[in-house]
Amino acid sequence: MTINQLPLTILILLTLTTISCAAEPPKNPQAINTSGEDWPVFLGPSGIGLSSETGLIKEWPAAGPPQLWQAEVGTGYSAPSVRENRVVCHHRIGDEEIVQCFDVTNGKTLWKHANPSNFSDPYGYNNGPRCSPLLTETLCYTFGAEGRLLCLNLEDGKLIWERKTHEDFNVPTAFFGVGATPILEDGKLIVLVGGQPNSGVVAFDAQTGKTLWESCGKNTWEGVATGWRRQENYEWTGEEMIVSYSSPIAATIHGKRQILCLLRHGLVSLDPATGAENFHYWFRAQVHESVNAARPVIIGNRILLTAAYQTGAAYLEVTEDSKSVKEIWRDTENLLCHWSTPIPVGKYIYGFSGRHENGSTLRCLELETGKVVWETTGWEGPLDHLSPASSSSVKNSKTNTIDPWPYYGRGSKIWIDGQFIIIGERGTVALIEATPDHFHELNRFKPNQLNYPAWTAPVLSRGRLFLRSETALMCYDLRNPEQ
To answer: Mean pLDDT over all residues of the chain?
Structure first.
């Protein structure tokens, strides 16, 4: 069943994605009194954008939920991270990358830490950080656009240690800067460094920054069958960009703890203690200027991979000995997520499919078969009365008004209590109900400060919705006063 496949033909564009784990009693006199959960990592505690919070408002006012505060920030695509009464945003102003900590209740700055940055995006996108901060009870980790890895004190922002990964490891220049958010696992900071020849993934001691192990690269991919006609077995050149823009994720599969990394060439499973490989699986576009950016989705003992650039999706089952995977299905057309990680709900998965904004759709797929159940551009109404007015708006000839751009494009989303919150590329924020049977948008609004490219994933913590643009960090109240 196709819900809406009528894209408005205008404007196209390119790439993106985004550090992970767990804070201290609030030092601020305004104590946390709202039930819910922290969001201290990229895509939240679930690692894929699933929230466990309940009791929030189920419908929004026409102008959107109440805004609690707004703070000025610089450029970047990294999502904020929240730990109790602190929200940390990594951004860039001028020639400095800034880690800035705000009070979640009022948006006041608690501390800042700045470092010089010379990063310049080769495609003309902004030069700010791409990775989200990772907050523990006492520490804040950040990974800058040119590979500067920092460990800061979460209370005051003072530097504890740093590593300049592009200097410490042989890292070829990547397409879009550094964009894979690190994770914490058993005292180790797991970082997709992308170093040659076998430092694609590096584990650092989370307390000291010392290198513990290095893994992935030539030893992983040389001689591997590719499925390409032009190169059946991969020949290592020594110039490969090993790393991708897909953040690693830790999972227990068949009782064994594993680190799953979707690198540029494909999926690798590693032993977190030693970095030893469990298995690898080729998953790469035949286009040189391409990336893997959506995170692997772990569903029991199965793994879903997806990417744009005609790569598609694969649903894999890990063998009982965790030494290989078998394909349940693989398809090049049904789900091609550019950077936004799809979210599984029950026996279905929901994701934005498409390389470019124009023509991308939100799709519902049956997990077991990969079959598309429905898709939508995010606009269910007629189109004949809409015409382009600007890069983020359309003119409605029936009402003679300028309305926000109607489509989601390559949107970002999180799932909360049976509903999705979606951010469209041009700043539309929508609350939707989506089931295998139907798609229905309940409300939408357009914050003034949220404009194209709105590529940062939304964040929810204790009933507060955090949105980030290239100029502002915004906080909205989704708490239900009757709860």
So the answer is: 91
